[in-house]
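Box 3.1 — From sequence to structure: Spermine oxidase-like
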Amino acid sequence: MHLFLPIIIVVCTLINIVTCAEQTKVIIVGSGPAGIAAASKLLENGIEDILILEAENRVGGRIDTKKWNGRNIDLGAEWCHGEKNNSVWEILEQKGLLNLLEREDLSGDIFLSSRKNISKEFSNELSDLVLLYYQINENVTQTNVSLGEVMVPSFYKEIQRKFGNDKEKYDIAKSMLDWLENMVLGVEGAFSWNDASYLSQYTDCEGDLHWGWGNRGYKIFLDVLTKKYPNPKEQLPIDNRILLNKEVKQIITNDSGNQLICTDGTSYEAKHVIFTPSLGVLKHDAKSIFTPKLADEKLEAIDKIGFGAVIKVFVKYDRIWWGNATGMNLIWTEEDRKAATETFSQQPRNSKSQSWVVEMHNVFVLPHSSILLVWFTGELVPTIEKMDDATLQRGIDFTFLKFFGHIVDVPKSQQILKTTWYTNPHFRGTYSFASVNSTVHDVEILQQPITNSVGVPTLQFAGEATHRIYHSTVHGAVESGFREANRIIQYHKKS
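Predicted structure (token representation):
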């Protein structure tokens, strides 16, 4: 008799999965900016039969504003980039919620691990090396040429032109290369600038590129988008349509719609599905989650488009020890790289056999607080994410003491908070980039919906990675959500 029990249980479970839910008009997978934008657009246009399935225990996706040490901090998206044609800026500007950040992209002085003082003029000349990233090399016409292939020779050519007659300055400038790569990787989100294409379709919106939220955090944008702000009484009825802790493990699509099965055994049916999880999730799960399997060209596009990660580490002190500084650009000399690697000899190293500690280059100041924000980028991001806080804290304390201990009493940090986007299975990274293997055609393939035999869009794809020119941004994600919602709205207007 026991031999039949597993069969009976399986049959009952399958029957339950198939019949437990009535068909919903639209199910949105993911409650990040793309998912919330799609839901808001649908509700505003009278399509109210919607449901959002969210794998996390919170709403927001890669917008994650947390209260920490008395202030709001953004673990994910942090800035509104640009103004013209930027949906985020256009939505928030009229509410008076944006303010231009006190620091620019490259604000903060340059500091050397050798503790050598450099003039403000020389510091500015070194900072100008970042312009190599934004200048267009007209000789590069192929998308499979990497940033590294172009940037490295351009860098050495430029420092030879600027400092070739001054060996001391030239040697200092040469140490800037790793800093420059880390800065570029912070923008691109790649693990190496040899992975990112030099020619990308990404387009900056006109206007200032670094708008912030004061102490409100990026979450205020979602509140405005859903009309919760400024008057909660006018909020769109989204909250009661979101189910948290609902990780979708399978989407079965046929002519009549979709069946979504979650890891907790629950099942839902929908005529339309808008799938918004990150490209990192698609890279990991695309071959297993969709039935029937996605077309080969879509799977190839998912594989070719780049997706990486960065780490933010918020560091709390008992006092502000950095004076009026708004940021710190840390330049490690070759000699100090070797010394730091010996000091942390038993800890992770990069492919150049250098300690993870020397990957710490960019430090930002959170205004009006005793909190610093340290960025880590590059190939060791997955390793540093898994590092215990005590080890990470010791490395950060060591670095600040190394750079500033001769001019100020640098206290030990009290507490740190580290992001873990790469190791979180619901994200598997931070944002997409144009890889050396991808073209804009891959993005177009990724965003194409799957339709049934009579042309109904049954399975649709949204998220920042599906935007041709605004990938890696919140406004790109928002526009992709609007795009897919409008696709459904237009279909129902015609039907």
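Summary of the box: Residues 107-209+311-420 form a domain with the Polyamine Oxidase; Chain A, domain 2 fold (CATH 3.90.660).
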